[in-house]
Design brief:
With 173 residues, this protein is α+β, with helices and mostly antiparallel strands. The chain has helices at 11-14, 29-42, 70-73, 113-121; strands at 48-56, 61-65, 79-90, 93-100, 136-139, 146-149. The chain has two domains: 11-134, no CATH class; 138-168, no CATH class. The strands form two sheets. The protein has a four-stranded antiparallel β-sheet. The structure holds zinc ion. Zinc ion is lined by residues 140, 142-143, 145, 156, 158-159, 161.
Length: 173
């Protein structure tokens, strides 16, 4: 059974969802290229394009402009994974260079890689072997701040309380 992640971020963001266009599933290499072109046109053809992504409950990849929240990309629904993808743009083509699970809205665990792997495999494109970097997220049991763990430092960035060993981001205090 795959773990589903519910949105765990601030509720005021979720309230804005109705103004966001719903992303279409990326189910072929062609649809990926089309959506990347669309996003890159808005960004004036820079050499690198970073996008927000989610893997929806059906296992489909969805991508959005990186300035959109993951919860907007998923239209408020639970996801199987989320993060950011960076593409290099060269010779009118895109190469997927880097994938992270950085999403403080959903806090997906590193082992959600398996659903990212499955979604990308069906596109028939080349992609990295794992999240880089792979993040762990913990919610502070004292002040409820979501912390992004770096260098095995398990202390809250706000109040320095010890953070638990296991994922707890869905516990809102
Ligand atoms: Zn704290």
């Amino acid at each position: 059974m795959l773990k589903q992640y519910n949105y765990v971020g601030p509720s005021e963001i979720q309230a804005q969802l109705n103004s966001v266009p719903f992303s279409q599933p990326v189910d072929t290499a062609q649809s990926l290229l089309q959506q990347l072109h669309q996003l890159n046109n808005d960004l004036h053809e820079s050499p690198f394009l970073t996008v927000t992504f989610v893997i929806d409950k059906e296992g489909n990849l969805r991508i959005c402009d990186r300035h959109q929240e993951h919860v907007a990309c998923a239209r408020g629904r639970p996801v199987l994974s989320a993060g950011e993808m960076t593409f290099a743009y060269q010779n009118a083509d895109y190469h997927l260079e880097r994938i992270t699970n950085q999403s403080t809205g959903y806090c997906p665990e590193p082992d959600s890689w398996q659903v990212v792997d499955s979604a990308l495999k069906q596109l028939g494109i080349q992609y990295p072997d794992f999240f880089e970097p792979a993040y762990d997220f913990r919610r502070c049991p004292r002040c409820t701040q979501i912390n992004l763990i770096k260098d095995n430092y398990y202390y809250c960035a706000v109040c320095e309380t010890d953070l638990p060993a296991f994922w707890n981001c869905d516990q809102k205090g």
